[in-house]
Design goal:
The chain is mainly α and 180 residues long. It is 67% helix and 7% strand.
């Protein structure tokens, strides 16, 4: 059985990133690729899962993903909106508007960086962490369901290969943008 992490978004966030990679890949190579299909049940299922978690927390799906990104990226000092935007492949202005709403709801704190006043650093509040903790058992059960049949070694192989594909895609994107 796969070792399920205690951090709320680790595995689902990786799967979300892979879903976004598939969308990018499809845009890059077109719709003729046999492994990338409009009727992707895994992708729709994952979107449904994110919507359910968001609804349980009383936030939108994009706000849920922003909370997961903050949780993953914050090492205790807060995380700038630009890093959140880069992680989720969304515009930083969208992060700003959504984190303002999350701040009003009590899930996020926003403070100006002491190092560079142009940046606002976001962190999860104790309320957000408490809500994540409440969902922990459900999330663990879901993660175990998603990865049933994969032992630790198989899961690591899949993760390594997906990471390699993501790095290759980033390199290819940089090469293409350099050619423009």
């Amino acid at each position: 059985m796969v070792c399920i992490p205690s951090q709320p978004g680790e595995h689902l966030f990786e799967v979300f990133v892979m879903r976004k990679f598939v969308q990018l890949f499809k845009r890059t190579i077109g719709n003729d690729f046999p492994l990338v299909d409009e009727d992707d049940p895994v992708g729709y299922f994952l979107d449904d899962i994110h919507q359910i978690w968001a609804k349980l927390l009383g936030v939108s799906e994009p706000q849920w993903l922003i909370l997961l990104a903050i949780d993953e990226l914050d090492s205790g000092e807060g995380v700038p909106g630009t890093k959140i935007a880069a992680k989720l492949h969304i515009h930083p202005v969208f992060v700003t508007t959504q984190t303002k709403s999350l701040e009003k709801a009590g899930f996020v704190t926003r403070k100006t960086s002491a190092v560079d006043a142009r940046f606002v650093l976001m962190s999860l509040t104790s309320k957000a962490r408490a809500e994540f903790a409440k969902l922990s058992a459900q999330r663990r059960a879901l993660n175990e369901s998603l990865f049933v049949g994969l032992d630790d070694q198989a899961f690591q192989v899949v993760t390594d290969k997906l990471t390699e594909i993501m790095k290759n895609a980033e390199r290819a994107a940089r090469r293409l943008s350099a050619e423009d």
